[in-house]
UniProtKB/TrEMBL annotation:
Gene Ontology CC: membrane
PANTHER family: LHFPL TETRASPAN SUBFAMILY MEMBER 6 PROTEIN, LIPOMA HMGIC FUSION PARTNER-LIKE PROTEIN
Coiled-coil regions, chain positions: none
Main location: membrane
Signal peptide: 1-21
Protein name: LHPL6 protein
Organism of provenance: Toxostoma redivivum
Gene name for this UniProt entry: Lhfpl6
Keywords, comma-separated and alphabetical: Membrane, Signal, Transmembrane, Transmembrane helix
Length: 139
């Protein structure tokens, strides 16, 4: 198994993959904000929610749906800021995962990653990390 990476490059590849996986899991989990509403525990993130209120027209009152799910549509996300955060965070996670998988392939294929490609990939990772890390700033 030939590699185009140095020992530091192999460590970078595996750490990149672990960080990208953690970012993606965090993006898909609905536990960004925790609280309670109508005496029920609720949680939500930019595009997923657990235990949310709905209006029951037959009972003429608001009831809590105690299940997790995503919003029915992109427009159903509560605010424009949360929609922007969903797109930016998703793009950041995608960039991080793309670079991490490319780096892991570099562990198995010789001449896949040159010094220049490594620097460009590091820059893309930095950009992806900035997109993902900025997700909690305005919330």
């Amino acid at each position: 198994m030939a590699s185009s990476l140095t020992c530091a490059g192999v460590i970078w590849a595996f750490l990149s993959f672990l960080c990208a996986a953690a970012s993606c899991v965090g993006f898909f989990m609905p536990y960004w904000l925790l609280g309670s509403q109508l005496e029920k525990s609720v949680s939500f993130s930019t595009f997923r929610r657990c235990s949310y209120p709905v209006r029951d027209e037959s009972l003429q009152m608001t009831v809590m749906v105690e299940q997790c799910g995503r919003y029915a549509s992109f427009q159903a996300i509560p605010s424009a800021e949360w929609r922007i955060c969903t797109v930016v965070t998703g793009l950041g996670c995608g960039l991080l995962l793309l670079v991490a998988l490319t780096a892991l392939m570099g562990c198995c294929v010789s001449e896949l990653i040159s010094r220049t490609v490594g620097r460009v990939a590091g820059g893309i990772q930095f950009l992806g990390g900035k997109c993902s890390c900025g997700q909690g700033m305005g919330m």
